[in-house]
Amino acid sequence: MLRLSKFFLKRGFISWLILALLLASLFQALIPQERSDDSLHLIRRLNGLFLLLVASLSLVSLALALKRLWSRERRPPHPLGKKVLLEPSFNGSLVPLRNKLESLGYVFTAEGQEWLLFERHRIGRWGTFVFHLGLFLVVLSFIYRGMWGARGYLQIMEGERLERIKDRHWLVKETGLLISRFEPNFGLALLSCNVRYQDGELFDINSRLRLLGKLRKEMETSLRGPLRYQGFRLYQAPDFGFVTTLYLRDQKGEFISAHYFLDPPSRPGEGFVGGGDFPGRDYSLNIKFYPNLFDQQALDPAWPGIYIQVQRAGELLFEGRLFFSQTISLGDERLTFGRLAYWTGLVVTSHQGEGVFFAGLLAAVLGAILVYFLPPRRIFLVLDANQALWVFLWSPYPGRFFPQEEDFLISEFRKVLANQNGR
Questions:
Q1: What is the model's pTM?
Q2: Which H or E run includes 117?
Q3: pLDDT 10s digits, 89-115
Q4: What residue stretches are annotated with the ResB-like domain (predicted)?
């Protein structure tokens, strides 16, 4: 048990724990917000891992702080810098020298039975503070997201109108531990969707939205960045497809309509596929849509049409090609391909803590620059086995200590020793 506790309190283990925490934070930040279901499941798993790492690091830090509190004496660091003999035979106390250095602005950082370590570099000390503050803000941003954040993915077709986005509208959602339902205080309507291709590949999707909140306005989405509205962010997902609307006319002349959301093909030329049951009837439909039936590689809906298979109770009623606005007979009923529209995916996020994250990241980088490029000056007071008192002066600057400061410190040390010895 003792060996296990020592392992968890080792600097290497703590360093790996901090690195894992930062990597988990970075991975969460790099996951595209506009992605749909796969990204949401990944974020949910990373949230659990992140909170576990935070709890582990907190426990280890608490144990390490208690250990240092109970054990004041530490192993001396290896002395560096210019070595100066202060007293060949020293029998006094190091306390007056410590008081003198502290009065000159040096900070006492560590001690042993026969050594003292002091540091001074106000910029470096502030750098340490800024660095740790930045890390704290980064961690805090993801704790905030894990507790109160929400993110949902929905599909909407051209002409569809949602007066208020309800929890049931999300195909996939991810919420924080303290959030059970995600219902933004606004609705939306998709006025139009423009899909643009370049060199045969998807280039951009522009959705013209009417946002139905306290401030009603029309905005256009893009894959290049989100929309901001009433504290929420709306991302254009790189998901789109076609919606085929079929109208069924029964014997009484009444029409029943059904919308079929068709998924895009995995490869060009394979068609948009979908289907399902027809509401209120026992028909089962399999649909494959092509924007151009005469050129199945084409992406623009110039000659739209579908290959459709209609079954009822396992009996095949129709199988063949159906152009836009064309009608087929299903016994006493008529089925018409009457409308074509785009559908697209939208991601809505709330309380993601992006501002706190980027502020923390900036502070951590700035603090790291100050710490690692401007390390503090160090003074070691060491009493060797022969009772000789030495001082080591180390500075990161090329000239080490400035000569005037170096001479001043040595003279001040010797004055203190002279007063202590009564000379």
A1: 0.64
A2: strand 115-120
A3: 777 778 888 888 888 888 887 777 778
A4: 98-237
